Amino acid sequence: MNKSKIFSLLIAVLLLAGCDYNDKYFDGYDDAVVSDIAKYEGEFTGKYPTIGYFTDNAAAETAINTMLKGIYKYCDKGSTAKVSVLFGDITEGMEQGETPDVSYVLASADYDAMGTDKGFPGKYDNFDATMNVDSFLVAFCNTKYATNDAGTLVRLVYAYYASSVTATKVKFFEKGTDGFAVKTVSAYVPTTIYSLVKADYDSMGTESGTPGKYDNFDANMNIDFYLAKFLAAKYPYAKADATCEVLYAYYASSKATTQSRIYKCDGASWSFYNPYADVTDVTTKIAEMTFDGSNWKLQRMIGGSVKYTLAEADYATLVAWVKANKNALYMSNQNIGQEEYYFGASAKYFNINNKYSTWKTYYDPEKLYTDKTDAQMQTIMDARMEEAIRDILLPKWVETPDPGLSYVVAYKVYGGRGDGMYVMSFMYNTTTSKYELISGPVAQ
Known about the structure:
Blueprint: H1 3-25, E1 39-43, H2 57-71, E2 80-91, E3 102-105, H3 108-113, H4 133-144, E4 153-162, E5 165-176, E6 179-183, E7 192-195, H5 198-203, H6 223-234, E8 243-252, E9 255-265, E10 270-272, E11 279-291, E12 296-303, E13 305-309, H7 312-325, E14 345-346, E15 351-353, H8 356-362, H9 374-397, E16 406-414, E17 420-429, E18 434-443
Parallel strand pairs: 1-2, 3-4, 7-8, 13-16, 15-16
Antiparallel strand pairs: 2-11, 4-5, 5-6, 8-9, 9-10, 11-12, 14-15, 16-17, 17-18
């Protein structure tokens, strides 16, 4: 007989004998249930969408289900998994209204033409609550755009005085068969609106190929490059998240038209900003899955991030904390009550001073820095800022900490490794009831 057949017979006999033995000596053996509960913790190794991350839970659940079924050919109901995935949270941009045919910023001469006596716009080159703004601006449009076709949509930018502050406001007007009338249009209004004048173009260069040559831009010029540099020079102390719409002349097809772009400041530099575009913030999240006996189901997606940028009041908070908790010598004797020497926070300039020579010369009341290298000084500065965010600012900002979130904090630095915005990221440890640094500082 074939040896393999003999071996198979012996195995079968042993199995039968084993079953008889178990049935005889182990009561209820046939009823015993052997469970195979899987517990997976790791990264997603399946296939991402073309964009490289997920943007909705359903797609993530389907892909993770496929991955886990490939890993576990068999497992029982109640199996669990925690899978790290890249996930993009989408913040939808504003709904964009109609695009105006004409955008115009009222100049001093325009206000003066409406009357310079008390109670008229030309008195102070602005409007206020005592004036009928719509009436004045309708009359302005009917004069300035008298020859425009019916249906022309005009966007006017004007100054409005209220509560001791002059603010920039915008209104739309559409031309009908009987002239212009106010038109309600959904539109984003930036912090500042600025219309370039000849001197502004000239400041960007007057040689051939630069804006000052003909006081306009054209298709051969990098508009964002020029305007970002211009805004940085014009508004050197702009705060993070400040926005500015710039109206400029653009030459094409043998004529110049007025166009505009919006820019946003990060506290150090300006860049093009589209308030109508969706913004996707991609972070690593944990997909918690359970197996229902047939498929892996997504229970919840935890993680993501919350972002904070130090505001003016936050720098003042650090100054006040040092005054109350540290040696009095850590307080500035020049900008009294506005600057401190422990974190380097300034409630006057709204930044963190990391200038090495300043720390060694003026910020060293306990004589700790004399022999330190610049790299060692930066390590001390970073540790101090970690302390400030971890122990003072985050507890102030966050009422109920979420251990599943990353808290991303941006602050403005002067000197040290370089001027600009820097970021540290923290997570909350429920065991210690404290925030812990997980990354940074890195330049924003």
